């Protein structure tokens, strides 16, 4: 029976400390969650601005459902594109400073759609080695030639770009790397794209809402704009709801409408979500004090953990990875935290490179100084115990 082989593979993963399993929350998204009947202080969510359970967003979603119902009923190109979708796309374009945007149901689908629609067999993709799995899958499915450069290594990227003389060239990079928390050198990447006549596709899933003036994202953080930039951000992290959008020149958006399979051939997201996201966009734009609070928490955590036997990886963002190394050791530390009422996920290969298992600590505006102090204290206790 093929089930025997499947079970053998799962047993092998368990032996390596790599087996994954799900836990079910019995409470709304918050720093304070209930899992399997137990309360925890959580540092694992991407709800960076604490909007996922915000009363204004809940009210907006309720009003959106009353007005538009609970399902879109069809794809955007059939009869599933609602006025609420249209309004959100316009507001997002204005917010990012691009001519047009296009909504997708998830960031994964956005990455699939953009890369598949813009490059093919005759073209070349240049990708940072630590890019998100959705970008890696997208470039493989595009059937373009793939050239990967060392993480953040613009010199190697320049060398690779100089070797390609034909076809479209697309440089792809996370803006904030989801497992490391560091920020891509977007200014340098854009300069190389201008030098070698390439597009730059920026996945700002973890920067939108958090970085830049008014939370406008990584492009605003670096003060860059260009027709060459195709910008993607998700709406289920700092924005607190669900979905994603791509912002670009009108001709790019029109190309996606006609050629991005993950847009064309899927039912549109419920329009009520767009109503909630319009409210979220207002809160993001008005949230500079929230982002200042988040920066204070980041500084507090980094200062408090500076003398641990495990090191925090370099990051000024809400993603603060504590590098452990060994898979089983990372899992033991995660379990030790859980036994003391704190929820922090252990991240292991293949999500991160071999030998770099870590605790991925994420901070939220909804945390306070006492929460961070508790985490610092428990990690110091575990350091003595382990």
Radius of gyration: 21 Å
CATH architecture of the largest domain: 3-Layer(aba) Sandwich
End-to-end separation: 42 Å
Number of strands: 14
Query: According to CATH, what is the topology of the largest domain?
Result: Aspartate Aminotransferase, domain 2
Q: Please trace the helix and strand order, writing H or E for each element.
A: HEEHHHEHEHEHEHEHEEHHHHEEHEEEH
CATH class of the largest domain: Alpha Beta
The shape, in one word, is globular
Number of continuous helical runs: 15
In total, the number of domains comes to: 2
Class from helix and strand fractions:
alpha/beta
Q: Uncertain spans, ≥5 residues at pLDDT below 50?
A: none
Q: Please indicate the percent range of residues in DSSP E strands (runs of 2 or more).
A: 15-25%
Mean pLDDT equals 96
Strand arrangement, largest sheet?
3-9-8-7-6-4-5
Helical amount: 40-55%
Q: State the fourth-level CATH superfamily of the largest domain.
A: Type I PLP-dependent aspartate aminotransferase-like (Major domain)
Biggest sheet descriptor: 7 strands, mixed
Description:
A seven-stranded mixed sheet has the order 3-9-8-7-6-4-5, with helices on both faces. Helix 2 runs antiparallel to helix 12 (271-285) and helix 5 packs across helix 10 (250-259). The mean pLDDT is 96. The chain is built from 15 helices and 14 strands. It has two domains: 19-49 and 288-385, Aspartate Aminotransferase, domain 1, CATH 3.90.1150; 55-285, Aspartate Aminotransferase, domain 2 (3-Layer(aba) Sandwich). The chain has helices spanning 2-15, 55-68, 76-80, 83-96, 107-118, 133-142, 154-162, 186-196, 218-222, 250-259, 261-264, 271-285, 288-304, 327-339, 369-385; strands spanning 32-35, 38-42, 100-104, 124-128, 145-149, 169-174, 199-203, 229-234, 244-248, 311-312, 319-325, 342-343, 345-347, 357-362. Strand 7, helix 9 (218-222) and strand 8 (229-234) form a beta-alpha-beta unit.
